[in-house]
Amino acid sequence: MADAQQLKEIVKERYGRIARQSVENSCCSCSTCCPSDGANQSTFSDSYDHLKGYIPGADLGLGCGLPTEFAGIKRGDTVVDLGSGAGNDAFITRSIVGDEGRVIGIDMTRDMVDKARVISEQMGYNNIEFRTGDIENLPVEGNSVDVVISNCVINLVPDKKKAFSEMHRILRPGAHFCISDVVLKGELPEKLRKSAEMYAGCIAGSLQQDAYLRTIQEAGFSDVEIKTSKEIHLPDTILREYLTDKEMAEFRERGVGIFSITVVGYKT
What we know:
Layout: H1 4-20, E1 78-82, H2 88-97, E2 102-107, H3 110-123, E3 128-132, E4 145-151, H4 160-170, E5 171-185, H5 190-193, H6 196-200, H7 209-218, E6 221-232, H8 236-239, H9 245-254, E7 257-267
Parallel strand pairs: 1-2, 1-4, 2-3, 4-5
Antiparallel strand pairs: 5-7, 6-7
């Protein structure tokens, strides 16, 4: 697989392309997850249309959970959304924190930041901002945030230990994060694991669940808890792009689990 910087460039290019597409033509973070008929569906994402603050134009179908549902966000909180994309979770969050709260969205893809800013300006919001930045080196001062959220993004970060350390740095003592992400149980076939394409599509960059939780704890978080977990089944149409029929059968028999989890942790 490519090195860390090359992977970031691959992710930037892919997500920049998605940001420039219309919502109708967008599908999910991994182009191979999109059905061949171009329908607006995703292997990963959950429906947001029942949530207060939902703006359809900001929903590009890139998530793998609903972190705001489990984040314990309160009115007046300062919340940072990591990998904020077109602003979908950030706008939901704004409806919870109210006018007295503050929301900061951070994304390394400039096209996504620009798209989110346009939507925010159209809505007339003045307590939400979107910054271009790297999750491994967040443009946020330390001990200044009540809640960090993220949705299917940390799996795209090459140095996940640094990402969680940065979350720990910006959170106030006693504050917490709530993120949805993709994890594994069992080893992926080598062809999938080494594919930069599948990395940018949220699979090959995922950690084993136990290793993921251990990385969180090593960053200094306590009371780490998985709030929800659902298995993701990769359709044969995706696997055939990387595996032979024999390898696909072995993959199915091996019982590798790909899961979307929503997890919380607290800074002591």
